[in-house]
Amino acid sequence: MADLSQIVKAYDVRGVVPDQWDEALAGLFGAAFVRVTGASAIVVGHDMRPSSPGLARAFGQGAAGQGADVTEIGLCSTDQLYFASGYLGLPGAMFTASHNPARYNGIKMCRASAAPIGQDTGLGEIRTLVEEWSDAGAPVADGPQGALTQRDILRDYAEYLRDLVDLSGIRSLKVVVDAGNGMGGHTVPTVFEGLPLELDALYFELDGTFPNHEANPLDPKNLVDLQRRVRETGADIGLAFDGDADRCFVVDENGDPVPPSAITALVASRELARVPGSTVIHNLITSWSVPEVVKECGGTPVRTRVGHSFIKQEMAATGAIFGGEHSAHYYFRDFWNADTGMLAALHVLAALGGQDDTLSQLVARYDRYAASGEINSTVDDQAARAAAVKEAYAGREGVELDELDGLTVTAEDWWFNLRPSNTEPLLRLNVEARDAATVERVRDEVLALVRA
């Protein structure tokens, strides 16, 4: 029996192809997906990686073998697959490894209306079935085989997003977009078509070998080309998408990165203006500015753990209109509580184009504090090092501790969060304060304890 512990993660399947998994296993995942969801029909899409079409087709064939009809939407972004799941009312599977290197691939799965599937909501059961079937194959289902049909849903996706954000009256903007040879090169031209935007396209050629740079804008080195182009051309804004184009990063007219927390606060203010009094979700690593802005706009901020499954659960439980994470994942009630960087980008463009200030002037209202960014430390014993930090701060006057997700320590002028990685021997530190000097002092104090 196969051991899939290395490729079945908390929220998805991910590993090296063909070393860790291949089309034969993809077919078993398709069969198991249908068994666990009980679906009579599903939708399947894939990114531009060389292995993606074959894996997606094998998954679909495995699903059809269990009697489910399969709608193949072909090349798409992850949020386009979520759109298809919501629009068609079907469980879905997206073949992508997001920003990972070319030899990786994976599956993000959801139930109908983009409801997440994670380890505790079906993925564990799917893994168990695939492992059981790995030797003899999936059992033959009763009844007829399902049919595989193809459908192009890109224009439906674009029209749906543009119905949610009105850009018709904005001033003309010069926009540089770095697609990183990922799926943004597929979606952006259709979504932006006809808008008052002058598009400067960087790396729009779909190429899953990522010849120019990694499609991971969270790493500053992958923003360098975008920043240079914005400065050279005098653009109003720069946008960078990751490999599967579900996350969007923003740089201002000076080429400076805009913190995702500032984008969260900006979009929250727009959504609260549209639906006053709503709830907005933010994870515990977003800036103090996010709950401040939400309250200033008459909304209710709700703090949650890091991770899309927690955000989506809280969105559903509270009826929240919007949610944001420090990693540039943005979730919308009007998008089936799923994350879509493209919709966040449209909100930023509408906000920028609806007034005369530059982007740096606009986001200054929402970017109020100094921050360290995420700092990773490799440690031999995560629990012991975290315990040492907790002991150092427990009982200090004027300091509060909570363990919603890792350890968060909050004082009047600063806070930090220290979280263990689920997949690597790392502790991740984020610090925020009212000024940069305090950030540096707290950062150095905590790192001395972590790295002792």
Walk me through this protein's architecture.
With 452 residues, the protein is an alpha/beta fold. It has four domains: 13-152, Alpha-D-Glucose-1,6-Bisphosphate, Chain A, domain 3; 156-254, Alpha-D-Glucose-1,6-Bisphosphate, subunit A, domain 3 (Alpha-D-Glucose-1,6-Bisphosphate, Chain A, domain 3, 3-Layer(aba) Sandwich), CATH 3.40.120.10; 260-363, Alpha-D-Glucose-1,6-Bisphosphate, Chain A, domain 3; 370-450, Alpha-D-phosphohexomutase, C-terminal domain (TATA-Binding Protein). The protein is 36% helix and 22% strand. The protein is built from 14 helices and 21 strands. The protein has helices spanning 23-37, 52-64, 78-88, 119-133, 154-164, 184-192, 224-233, 260-274, 289-296, 308-318, 341-353, 359-363, 382-393, 436-450; strands spanning 13-16, 41-46, 69-75, 92-95, 104-110, 148-150, 173-178, 197-202, 237-241, 248-251, 257-258, 279-283, 300-304, 322-324, 330-332, 370-371, 375-378, 400-402, 407-410, 414-420, 426-433. Strands 1-5-4-2-3-6 form a six-stranded mixed beta sheet, with helices on both faces. Strands 16, 17, 18, 19, 20 and 21 form a six-stranded antiparallel beta sheet that branches. The chain has a five-stranded mixed beta sheet with strand order 8-7-9-10-11, with helices on both faces. The mean pLDDT is 96. Residues 374-448 form the Alpha-D-phosphohexomutase C-terminal domain.
